[in-house]
Each structure stands twice: as C-alpha cells, then as structure tokens.
Write a structure and sequence with these properties.
This protein is mainly beta. It has one helix and nine strands. β5 (102-112) and β6 (118-129) form a beta hairpin. The radius of gyration is 17 Å and the shape is globular.
C-alpha cells in the first residue's frame, strides 16, 4: 500500500512538473531512452562503439530546465576498454527547437569509470535529435575533463567531445 502511494505521488509530480516549472509559460519536454552507435571503433578494440542513454527533461521558455540525463557505456557495448563508464547528471539549463526536432541541455554530473574512480560535480552538455532508430541522436560533451582520451573528437579544447551517436533502439521525443 505504501509503495502504491509513493508511485501515485511520483506520477502526480511528473504530471504537474511542466506547468509548475514554466510558471505559466510554455515548456518543452525532452524524453526517451535506448541504445545508440557512434558508427565507428573509437578505442581500437575492433568493435563499433556506442552507449545506452536515458533522458527525462523539462525545458522552460526562459532557458531553465529540470530533469535527469544518463549515458551508460556498459559491458555489452565496449567503450574505451572500460567495463563501465557512466555519466549521470542533473539538468539545469537548456533550449529546444520543437519544429526542427532538436534540443540541447546542460548540467552537472557524476562520472563513474567503473574501476573505483568516481568524479562528482562534472559539467556536461548534450545535444539531441528527436526520432527512433536511424533518425534520432545524442551528442555528449563532458566539459573540462578527459580531453584527448580515445573517442574525443576535439582534442585540445579541454573537453571530452564524444562523436554524434545515432539511435539503434529506443526513441527520443521533443514536445
């Protein structure tokens, strides 16, 4: 009974969140999840790299945002020779172009390398393209860390810029 009450409260908050966050102004919801591919072998292990991702974000008209982003490079999708790399963050700002089906958002993350190394308070940026397999996409940048490691598409700028990723299963919606 208590679990049912907690679920009901969480659902009620999720329904009320867009209106409350926007303060009467229009808001945009960006959500989805799935698996993607970078379309190439960026760590030299002979496998095409990619991630699992989850997004639940509400963007307000004034550039504020609330929500959560998760990017997981897990054992079934090799990446950088790690058994795990997880970027999990709270979203605090963002914008969307609903007509174009794109959005970008940013926040602060916890980065777990799976080998006992965990970084907290790491800024991140994400660009997403709405759609499903073959059309939707995710591009993650970890700001101020991991510059130049395998997979970084812009070494020397102080950030870890992952390549654009195309969804292979799942979907991203922007509405």
């Amino acid at each position: 009974m208590r679990r049912l009450l907690v679920v009901a409260l969480v659902l009620a908050a999720a329904i009320a969140l867009p209106a409350a966050l926007a303060g009467g102004l229009a808001s945009t919801v960006v959500n989805g999840g799935g698996q993607g591919t970078f379309g190439g072998d960026f760590d030299g292990d002979g496998s095409v790299d990619g991630t699992h991702f989850g997004i639940g974000v509400v963007l307000s008209a004034g550039g504020g945002a609330q929500g959560h982003f998760l990017c997981l490079m897990a054992g079934n999708v090799p990446f950088l020779g790690l058994k795990l790399m997880q970027v999990e963050g709270r979203v605090t700002a963002g914008s969307a172009d609903v007509a174009a089906g794109t959005a970008s958002f940013s926040g602060v993350a916890r980065v777990n390398l799976g080998n006992g190394v965990i970084f907290t308070g790491v800024p991140f940026r994400v660009f997403v393209r709405a759609g499903g397999p073959g059309t939707g996409g995710v591009t993650l940048t970890v700001v101020g860390a991991f510059d130049g490691v395998p997979g970084d598409t812009a070494p020397g700028n102080g950030n870890y810029d992952l390549p654009a990723e195309t969804i292979t299963s799942g979907q991203i919606t922007i509405h």
